[in-house]
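Forgive a beginner's question, but would it be possible to get a protein, spelled out as residues, together with the matching structure tokens, please?
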Amino acid sequence: MRESVFRFKEFALRQRDSAQKVGTDSTVLGSWIDCSGAECILDIGTGTGILALMLAQKSEAGIVALEPEPLAAKEAFFNVQQSPWNSRIQVLQQSLQDYLQSSSGSFDLIVCNPPYYPDSAHYQMNAGSRQQARQTSTLPFDELLRGISHVLHPHGNAWLVLPVREAKVLEEMALQVGLHVNTQVEILHMKDSSPKRMLLCLGKIARVCRKEQLILYTDNQMPTSAFYGISKDFLLWKQVDASKLD
């Protein structure tokens, strides 16, 4: 039976009821983001609460974490309450769409690991709960982008993680609502592999897009120095001698 608790250095995530378990996408996104100056953070689709808790650990910001699925929202609330930062994180059982109906505030940092699976009837019939939670029908790209544009501070940033193909689609759609991609980070499992995921940073101010790469593992399956460097405050790396990493 799969372990129902995922342990980080400073907090733990119960993931018994949430369809979206702890995975590499959110772990890399939360590790990569520099949120040291952020005051107000919005986490869209928090799941277990992983991104909200990672960003709470590395900032002093107040965080609103949205999760529409009842069991996942309940689990996120439990995880937040058990953490050292429960006074700064508000978990709301709401979709982004519903939240926008009652909120007029703005955020200087928005994070999201959005759904991206297709919505065909055949796919829905054959998808498990994890895949169903990732279907775009729950939060279509156009609604996500309009929502981000509505609550993002003029000088704020929104960070997302997506498969490379979907990231390119979202990048084109973002321009239609006045959002510009100012950073692209290709995520490679190893140096000779093709990128499977991309981190995107969106903002309302058009800038020259900075393009970077993050390679996660060496040939012998040890974390690269870059991945270890950004994740060492969160992940419980075992048998890693930082001085011997590439």
User: Anything to note?
Assistant: Residues 50 and 106 are 22 Å apart (CA to CA). The mean pLDDT is 90.
